[in-house]
């Protein structure tokens, strides 16, 4: 029987970590993810896990210690947000290229400057090309479920890549919601014993050297292999989601399609805003408007073909980015979604909205405006503006 | 324990020949001398900061390291080995590992005194059972001889060049060994590959087999950066020690001890003269700069003698 609980997002993530009982957690506090290592160190102090908790002196060292521990053959986790993730940036690439299956909750928060502790996606979007798999979560339930699946995805022999599990800072991390937890035994059975294989620093059979100077004769091939692992990840993510569905009844894909079967207008969005948008979709549907929603769960690898298929029959799509990429040409999710549609025979109009930066509230009426803009485009055939900012004082 | 060099060199080398370090470089000598202190039956994981030693010893697909080896980035050898050591502790506790492993990180002065200081300090403060070895060659040698905070005053480097109005580096060097001693960790020592290697051997052995964190600062000449004739490596080391530019001492559980006292303290000039990086100091108009260096060497030496109760 699943366990019904009321937990905040951070508690949910920390609970998943407790049930996974990783070998090493190395972490440094940063708002709003601070509670994760806080809860976890309490588990360590109470003996509810037998993890080595390394309270490092910075996020740079957190990720560096995770690399060392994972290279030594341990199952390793950490957590961070915003500037902490930015400080890890150099080592994110090293973790991925060393093919180390580290799992990290990222509690999304705006990047400085100016300093701001509230939610947007500029942190994880900044790390989108670091070679990490990225899963996004709408609420505490999805964050919990994603963490458990992430362990399996990261450690799969065809993948062996680190995974970040993103959720919105404060909106989810500090909001208490109902959640269904798995029994710890079931989590343990699902994630299994970690088998790091023979390529570990502590392999008694043979010493191993990691992190070489890799010059032009080999570097490119190594990056190509890493890219192949990312390609493999898509299939593995879906296989593991199926197993997870069999265990819990909760279904996960590369993205969630909400009322998309006959949708004429749609929004593409990440994380908790999807919940707000679903309300608007329901309201519009009651009025007979064919509105739909796509909530991307897997942003790396990017589900190009699948998104193309899901969107090709829609007339107008708005991609909402809670991060600007300062390309002067739309947000990061917009750019990739629009590129995915290039090969579709019939393609919708695709427009970009940057919204919610630095924790600016996004309400149902904001999202209603986006759908109304799309409906106007469909009606008039005229696109007034491709690049838009939503909810900002201009 | 006194070193029987004849016996010690019979131990199988854990750092092979065929690495790409320069002829006359002190780093390979330092590494071999430190690793010789490992009991042959003990396994080790070696970490390295980005630098000469790392790029010369592990150029894919070759490695000169017979023990497991990890290079992560420039500034994080301390944190990386912390992670490896934490993994070892937990995997040993869980019964997944039987063998005894020792953990040693090597970094140059750039990766240790400067960019890696935070990661090193954190690792030492947290008490990981590891040894951090700084091979101090007094500049960023791998990137083309730029000044570091370990560079001696008035040395000519590419970012502290001796010119018409500025005679080389403008600051005295940071005393990292003292900074590490202020961490009050079980063992800190300053050493050098010197004479029959007994000083570095004994200190490496203590560092490796003392439980908890230990730090070794090893004087490691660089023929490219210091501009000396490669066969003069050991001569330069001896001059650094006998001029008291690089005193040999240890701080064991807070107790300071001088481990070598020159019979005759030589003038700093003797250490500076064979090195091209100090050539400009020997122009007649720069005599006062050498005097200034002598004063600072004397001052630091007197302070050390006092700490060591000499």
The oligomeric state of the chains shown is heterodimer
Order of strands, widest sheet of chain A: 10-12-11-14-15-16
Unreliable residue stretches of chain A = none
Given the structure, what is the number of helices of chain A? 12
Largest sheet of chain A: 6 strands, mixed
Give me the count of strands of chain A.
16
Name the helicity range of chain A: 40-55%
Order of helices and strands of chain A: EHEHEHEHEHEHEEHEHEEHEEHEHEHE
Q: How would a textbook summarize the main sheet of chain B?
A: 8 strands, mixed
Number of helical segments with 4 or more residues of chain B? 12
| Beta-strand content of chain B | 5-15%
Q: Taking Cα atoms only, what radius of gyration of chain A do you get, to the nearest Å?
A: 21 Å
Would you tell me the structural class of the helices and strands of chain B? Answer: alpha/beta
Question: Can you tell me about this structure?
Answer:
The complex is a heterodimer of chains A (394) and B (310). Chain A is an alpha/beta fold and 394 residues long. Chain A has 12 helices and 16 strands. Chain A has helices spanning 9-20, 35-45, 59-71, 82-97, 122-126, 140-155, 184-191, 219-248, 273-286, 304-311, 332-340, 364-380; strands at 3-8, 24-27, 52-55, 76-77, 103-108, 133-136, 163-168, 176-181, 209-210, 255-258, 265-270, 291-296, 298-300, 316-321, 349-355, 387-390. Chain A has a 6-stranded mixed sheet with strand order 10-12-11-14-15-16, sandwiched between helices. A 4-stranded mixed sheet of chain A has the order 5-7-6-13. The radius of gyration of chain A is 21 Å and the shape is globular. The termini of chain A are far apart. In chain A, 55% of the residues are buried. The model of chain A has no long low-confidence stretch (mean pLDDT 97). Chain B has an 8-stranded mixed sheet, with helices on both faces. In chain B, strand 5, helix 8 (198-209) and strand 6 form a beta-alpha-beta unit. Chain B has 310 residues and is of the alpha/beta class. Chain B has 12 helices and 8 strands. In chain B, 36% of the residues lie in helices and 14% in strands. Classes of the chains: A alpha/beta (394), B alpha/beta (310). Chains A and B meet through strand 3, helix 3, helix 4 and strand 9 of A and strand 1, strand 2, helix 4 and helix 6 of B. Strand 9 (209-210) of chain A pairs parallel with strand 2 of chain B, so a sheet runs across the interface.
């Amino acid at each position: 029987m699943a366990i019904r609980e009321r937990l905040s997002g951070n508690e949910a993530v920390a609970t998943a970590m407790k049930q996974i009982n990783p070998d090493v957690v190395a972490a440094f506090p940063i708002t709003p993810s601070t509670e994760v290592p806080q809860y976890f160190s309490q588990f360590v102090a109470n003996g509810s896990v037998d993890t080595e908790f390394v309270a490092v002196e910075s996020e740079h060292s957190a990720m560096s210690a995770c690399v060392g521990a994972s290279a030594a053959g341990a199952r390793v986790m950490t957590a961070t947000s915003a500037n902490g993730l930015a400080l890890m940036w150099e080592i994110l690439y090293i973790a991925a290229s060393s093919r180390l299956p580290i799992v990290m909750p990222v509690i999304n928060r705006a990047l400085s400057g100016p300093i701001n502790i509230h939610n947007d996606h500029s942190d994880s979007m900044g790390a989108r090309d670091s070679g990490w798999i990225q899963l996004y979560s709408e609420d505490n339930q999805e964050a919990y479920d994603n963490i458990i699946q992430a362990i399996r995805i990261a450690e799969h022999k065809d993948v062996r890549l680190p995974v970040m599990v993103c959720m919105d800072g404060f909106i989810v991390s500090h909001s208490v919601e109902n959640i269904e937890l798995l029994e710890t035994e079931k989590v343990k059975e699902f994630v299994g014993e970690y088998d790091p294989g023979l390529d570990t620093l502590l392999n008694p059979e043979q010493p191993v050297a990691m992190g070489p100077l890799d010059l032009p004769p080999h570097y490119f091939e190594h990056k190509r292999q890493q890219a192949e692992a990312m390609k493999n990840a898509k299939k593995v993510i879906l296989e593991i989601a199926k197993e997870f569905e069999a265990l819990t009844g909760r279904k996960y894909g590369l993205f969630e399609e909400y009322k998309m079967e006959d949708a004429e207008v749609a929004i593409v969005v990440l994380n908790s805003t999807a919940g707000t948008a679903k309300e608007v979709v329901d309201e519009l549907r009651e009025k007979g408007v064919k509105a739909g929603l796509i909530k991307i769960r897997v942003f790396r690898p990017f589900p190009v073909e699948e998104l193309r298929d899901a969107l090709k029959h829609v007339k107008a799509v708005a991609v909402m980015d809670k991060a600007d990429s300062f390309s002067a040409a739309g947000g990061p999710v917009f750019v990739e979604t629009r590129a995915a549609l290039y090969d579709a025979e019939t393609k919708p109009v695709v427009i970009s909205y940057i919204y919610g930066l630095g924790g600016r509230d996004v309400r149902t009426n904001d999202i209603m405006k986006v759908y109304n803009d799309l409906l106007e485009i469909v009606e008039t055939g005229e696109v007034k503006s491709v690049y838009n900012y939503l909810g900002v004082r201009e | 324990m006194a070193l029987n060099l004849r016996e010690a060199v019979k131990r199988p080398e854990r750092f092979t020949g065929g690495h790409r370090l320069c002829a006359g470089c002190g780093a390979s000598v330092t590494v071999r001398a430190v690793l010789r202190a490992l009991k042959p039956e003990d396994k080790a994981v070696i970490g390295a900061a980005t630098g000469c030693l790392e790029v010369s010893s592990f150029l894919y697909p070759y490695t000169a390291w017979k023990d497991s080896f990890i290079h992560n980035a420039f500034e994080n050898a301390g944190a990386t080995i912390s992670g490896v050591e934490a993994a070892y502790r937990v995997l040993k506790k869980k019964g997944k590992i039987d063998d005894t492993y020792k953990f040693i990180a090597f970094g140059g002065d750039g990766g240790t005194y400067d960019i890696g200081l935070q990661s090193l300090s954190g690792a030492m403060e947290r008490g990981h059972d590891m040894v951090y070895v700084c091979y101090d060659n007094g500049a960023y040698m791998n990137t083309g001889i730029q000044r570091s905070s370990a560079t001696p005053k008035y040395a000519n480097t590419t970012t502290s060049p001796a010119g018409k109005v500025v005679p080389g580096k403008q600051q005295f060097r940071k005393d990292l060994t003292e900074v590490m001693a202020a961490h009050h960790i079980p063992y800190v020592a300053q050493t050098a590959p010197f004479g029959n290697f007994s000083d570095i051997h004994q200190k490496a052995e203590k560092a490796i087999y003392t439980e908890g964190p230990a730090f070794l600062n090893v004087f490691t000449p660089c023929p490219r950066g210091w501009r000396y004739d490669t066969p003069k490596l050991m001569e330069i080391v001896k001059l650094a020690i006998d001029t008291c530019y690089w005193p040999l001492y240890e701080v064991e559980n807070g107790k300071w001890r001088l481990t070598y006292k020159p019979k005759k303290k030589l003038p700093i000039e003797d250490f500076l003269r064979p090195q091209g990086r100090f050539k400009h100091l020997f122009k007649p108009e720069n005599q006062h700069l050498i005097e200034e260096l002598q004063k600072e060497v004397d001052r630091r030496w007197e302070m050390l003698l006092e700490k060591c109760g000499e």
